């Protein structure tokens, strides 16, 4: 087979493999897996194309550069976490105080199981010096806004202190969870039992503060 025929065959195979616009999700999944295995440094558009089995040019149809790809991976991470949030918050079969407890524990669990992705979602790579793009901001900001809305509901139901400013309370509870997550990811407290006890303590502190009002 001549080189020209090989190129034609490659293009036809790629087109058949990734029709109906399913290449972008495949690239994102592969990029997320690469970051999970080797961190952000292990990812490049060239290596991603090789992993998925497409030409490097094909990746540029969806991401203009590595930074654009990283923003898309982080955005997908926020979508995943938002789905977890909604699953917890909307589960009417579970008592609302237990839902709050699940929220704290699932947040830490998400960070523990996806440390490299969590770093990308909340770290300086994409956020310091305003490096995030609009697509990422359009996904990430509503996720925190949803947490503010959950906090308001928890306040109204006596789960969290009702007298506190809702936005500030959401920021403080998030900051507490983020701090625990960082201790775990950075290896300061690598013992899972210590992290679990800290999560339980955080839940108890916020719930008891509500009860004291």
From TrEMBL:
Coiled coil: none
The keyword 4Fe-4S is assigned to this record: no
Gene Ontology molecular function: DNA-binding transcription factor activity; transcription cis-regulatory region binding
PROSITE patterns: HTH_TETR_2 (PS50977)
Name of the featured protein: TetR/AcrR family transcriptional regulator
Species name: Thalassotalea algicola
Keyword NAD applies: no
DNA-binding region: 44-63
Domain HTH tetR-type residue range list: 21-81
């Amino acid at each position: 087979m001549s080189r020209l025929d090989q190129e034609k065959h490659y293009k036809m195979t790629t087109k058949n493999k990734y029709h109906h616009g399913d290449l972008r999700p495949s690239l994102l999944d592969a990029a997320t897996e690469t970051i999970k295995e080797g961190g952000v440094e292990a990812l490049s558009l060239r290596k991603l194309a090789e992993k998925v089995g497409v030409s490097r040019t094909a990746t540029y149809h969806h991401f203009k550069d590595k930074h654009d790809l990283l923003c898309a991976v982080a955005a997908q991470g926020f979508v995943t976490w938002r789905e977890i949030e909604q699953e917890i918050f909307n589960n009417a079969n579970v008592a609302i105080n237990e839902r709050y407890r699940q929220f704290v524990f699932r947040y830490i669990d998400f960070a523990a199981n996806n440390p490299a992705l969590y770093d990308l979602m909340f770290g300086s790579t994409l956020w310091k010096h305003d490096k995030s793009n609009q697509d990422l901001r359009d996904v990430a900001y509503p996720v925190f806004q949803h947490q503010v809305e959950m906090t308001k509901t928890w306040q109204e139901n006596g789960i969290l202190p009702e007298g506190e400013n809702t936005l500030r309370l959401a920021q403080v509870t998030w900051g507490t969870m983020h701090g625990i997550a960082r201790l775990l990811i950075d290896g300061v407290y690598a013992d899972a039992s210590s992290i679990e006890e800290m999560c339980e303590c955080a839940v108890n502190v916020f719930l008891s503060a509500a009860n004291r009002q």
